[in-house]
Amino acid sequence: MAVTEQSPEARRLQEALEMHEFGIALYRQRMRREHPQASEEEVDAMVRAWLAEPPREDRLRRPSGEKP
Question: What is the spatial distance between Cα 37 and Cα 8, in angstroms, rounded to a whole number?
């Protein structure tokens, strides 16, 4: 199987997706630690609820369309 070189944009997107998945895994682990009695379904529900939350106002955010 031939390995193709990724463009810098594709590599950044891949890294961002991997960081997102890692963040979810860390949150899932935290929920298991904080709620040891919770079933896997309950932990899944906690993770889904966390992902669906709107952004908090006390977090730093760059306005849409603003370039770094």
Answer: 44
The per-residue pLDDT for range 45-56, each reduced to its tens digit, is 999 999 998 877
Give the global pTM.
0.72
Q: Helix 8-34 and helix 40-52: axis angle, to 10°?
A: 130
Length of the chain equals 68
Q: Where are the alpha helices (DSSP H) in 1-68?
A: 8-34, 40-52
Residue type, 22: F
Q: Are 41 and 28 in contact (CB under 8 A)?
A: no
